[in-house]
Amino acid sequence: MERRDFFRLLTGMTTALGMARTSALVHAQALQPTPSCPDGSEPTPRQTEGPYFKPASPERASLLEPGMAGVKIVVTGVVRLASCQPVPRALIDVWHADDRGDYDNAGYRLRGHQFTDDQGRYRLETIVPGVYPGRTRHFHLKVQAPKGPVLTTQLYFPGEAANASDPIFNRALVLRVRDGAEGKTATFDFALRA
Ligand code: FE
């Protein structure tokens, strides 16, 4: 081998080695320790959309309107990936029945979407949905990380007699509800599949 060829080979090997090291470094930076996830990381179960979803709901965190009947409720929580990482700018689209168990299919009453903040948190202000024949009390939701798949699901209330007879009721989807002076507060954290 000529001396010039030997140097060319050596340079090539050094470059390849450097690239491998850079790639290993990038991997080391991308792999972060899994943060604690006290509620577990089981993905939030999917549920049927039902017959009353309407696309293009208004963007709003409060569905309350003047004169609206019903018990106020504020629902808060975090949207995470199943790996526990919070999801900023996740879409949360909510629709539900009014105090009497009716959906607004002509307009957008009790329908709205919002996006989680930098830490994946959301805050929804609305009323407790009324019940209608065949179903226990529930919210409908679609939750989606940016460019991720859509999770269609429902949330339920604790202590409802009709939970036992609703065929799709799922206890993994029950809100933690507390009574307060100004109405109810509730929490629920979502875990999305990647
Ligand atoms: Fe429904």
Task: Describe the 3D structure.
By secondary structure, the chain is α+β, with helices and mostly antiparallel strands. It has two domains: 1-31; 72-192, Aromatic compound dioxygenase (Protocatechuate 3,4-Dioxygenase, subunit A, Sandwich), CATH 2.60.130.10. The protein has one helix at 3-30, and strands at residues 72-81, 91-95, 111-115, 121-127, 138-144, 150-156, 176-180, 183-187, 190-192. The strands form two sheets. Strands 1, 4, 7, 8 and 9 form a five-stranded mixed sheet that branches. Strand 5 (138-144) and strand 6 form a beta hairpin. It starts with a helix and ends with a strand. Bound molecules: fe (iii) ion (FE). Fe (iii) ion binds at residues 50, 52, 135, 138, 140.
Descriptive terms for the model:
1 helix; about 15% helix; binds fe (iii) ion; four-stranded antiparallel beta sheet; Protocatechuate 3,4-Dioxygenase, subunit A; alpha+beta; five-stranded mixed beta sheet; about 190 residues
Strand % is 25-35%
Shape: globular
- Number of individual domains: 2
Query: What's the CATH C level of the largest domain?
Result: Mainly Beta
Please give the count of helices: 1
**Global Rg:** 24 Å
Helix fraction, binned, reads: 10-25%
Quaternary: single chain
Instruction: Specify the biggest β-sheet.
Output: 5 strands, mixed
Order of helices and strands: HEEEEEEEEE
Report the count of strand segments. Answer: 9
- Give the name of the CATH architecture of the largest domain: Sandwich
Mean residue pLDDT: 87
CATH topology of the largest domain, what is it called? Protocatechuate 3,4-Dioxygenase, subunit A
Cofactors, ions and other ligands in the entry: fe (iii) ion
CATH superfamily of the largest domain: Aromatic compound dioxygenase
List unreliable stretches of 5+ residues: 9-28
Helix-strand makeup class: alpha+beta
How far apart the termini lie comes to: 52 Å
